[in-house]
Amino acid sequence: MHMHATLATSQSQWLRDVDEWISDLDMRSDGRENRRRLARVLGFNADWSTLTTNTLTWSTISERTGMSRATVARHLLALHEAGWVGRVAAGRSAAAKQAAGWTGDDAFLNDAPVYALTTPVDDTAVDINETPPTLRGSKEFPARAREAEPPTGAATRPSHPEAAYGRRWTVPADRSLPAWPGHVTPRSKDERGLAGREWARRVPALRKLSDKHLRFLAKDFFTAGWTIRDLVTALDELPDGRAHGQFAAGQWVPYSGADGIPAARLGHWVSWRLNAWRDPEGQVIESPTQRRTRRANSARREQEARRVAEARRRQELRETRSTPEYQAAKTACLEQILGRNRRHRRRG
Fold it and tell me: Residue 158 contacts by C-beta under 8 Å, 6 or more apart in sequence?
């Protein structure tokens, strides 16, 4: 039984509504948490203008949620049948694309299925599989006026689960969905291909290189846990924070980027700049994100150590002040002070 559904009004509202629905389900608590975790992955990876996802394969969802593919499939089906997710297009493997005659770099990448964030509106039995929803709406899956009319000013996208219940981010309404999130380390070959595409989108000079070539250039860095944001930083800066450059007359002089470098030499330029982030043995060093995380964790540990030390000091002080010896000394001191006050009053 499939619910009649309409396109959600916003990501944040969809996250709130689906979270409330999951909380009311009569099922085990671990099952509710798994379904909530999967729903949040869908919500946070949906394009904020179309409310659809096009980068989430089952393998990606499985990795990000820690659930098996079978569990992912079960919860996706439950969300779909309840009217919270619409299947717009099925995924397609690289092998299927090649068999269909695809060529070029895209032929070696799996196409993720496209899901839409929807809201159930009634109990009408409608099979969304038989009448796939479109971004312009259909009889079984009408889109709100929001799809035909761009949002005024900006659309909203929550940055993390807590943001879905309060603080909002404003982003350009015409911003397109990135091929790969800039803060997530790609793991598989396909994910690295998408990450290479996003790298080129963020650094236009790299568009002279194919996604496959960029994936090769970044392979060691992705293996070391780097992200797209780290790679962009590494092309601009040295590990010590200075811009890439050279010494001239005893001074460090930054120089420009790759805009004028021909495609035949651009790969060497990228490797040369990234190699500044390797140690003398050629191993990739910690990324800018990893460095910030390490320093933040170190600061938190130091703060916690100071807090524990202060708590221990106060506990020891309380224990010392509760001993008979301390109480006797305290009483004697008070008696001495009171005695001095009495003698002072008699003299006066």
Answer: 11, 12, 15, 43, 44, 164, 168, 169
239 and 336 co-located in one domain: no
pLDDT digit string, tens, across residues 34-76: 999 999 989 888 887 788 887 788 888 888 888 888 888 889 8
- How many domains does the structure of the chain reveal? 3
Question: Are 318 and 215 contained in the same domain?
Answer: no
> What is the residue type of 11?
Q
- Which pLDDT score is estimated for 109? 67
Are residues 163 and 15 part of one domain?
yes
Q: Which domain holds residue 58?
A: 4-172
Verify that 123 and 219 share a domain, yes or no.
no
Is residue 280 located within the same domain as residue 300?
no
Instruction: Say if 99 falls within a structural domain.
Output: yes
Residue 274 to residue 224: CA distance in whole angstroms: 13
Q: What integer is the mean pLDDT of 151-172? A: 38
> Distance of alpha carbon 27 from its chain centroid, rounded?
28
